[in-house]
Amino acid sequence: MGVKPDFPFYNGLPAELGGRGWLLVLGAVLVAYLQLVLLPLPGFPLNFIPVILFSVIPLAALAWVGGAWTSLFRRYGPREFGLTILFGLLTLVVSFAAGLILTFLTTMTANPVLVSELSSTDLALLLVRSGIQLVGEETVTILPLLAVMWFCFQRLHWSRSRSLVAGVVVSTLLFAAMHLPTYGWNVIQCFGVIGVARLVMTVSYLLTGNLAVSIGAHVLHDWALFFMSFAGAHAPIDPAAGAS
């Protein structure tokens, strides 16, 4: 039985990025996020451009500095597919539970995407565009995790496990903070619900070392929410339901 491959980059394998390389990669993560938030392009097909750049810019920067970007991904087979489904469903359960608990502390802010008002064609375009964006969301979460892990392991000489915990904490906080503009700067919701859900998706990467699994789990989670909202708004109305 083979040894499970380790996480990439933090220990100089399969490539040593160095401080300058990591600064360039993290700079690319910031640029990718800012262009997504500050330069929205309305309407199809222009609104696909920011999400494509959001996903491509960080990976392109990683490749540019000599990082083997493909090491973020591993073989995807039946086991990985099963884990994708498992963690997608687990993320749904955890986010619903966290949201329910926090309704006693704050008013939840609705997602500004009004799925209930979309046509079937618009929904299909939304699913494709969100799927591309979620590739970027996973990339801009895991790359900072690995960067923090590298810094703690190589520069601070922390243990691997302690460095990994630091990477998970920082990347989770960054992910939650990225959603603040979307949810009206609702701090409790972003850190208490989205941050908790983020931990589940991060665990899917930590267990598999495969970004494709966490991407798939994230897509399953978001698409399930979109479908539920759309189905609820377009459900057949029973004429007898309004009778007294």
Automatic annotation (TrEMBL):
GO terms for biological process: CAAX-box protein maturation. Keywords: Membrane, Transmembrane, Transmembrane helix. It comes from the Bacteria. Residues 125-223 form the CAAX prenyl protease 2/Lysostaphin resistance protein A-like domain. GO terms for molecular function: endopeptidase activity. The chain crosses the membrane at residues 21-42, 48-69, 81-106, 126-151, 163-180. InterPro entries: Rce1/LyrA-like_dom (IPR003675). This is CAAX prenyl protease 2/Lysostaphin resistance protein A-like domain-containing protein.
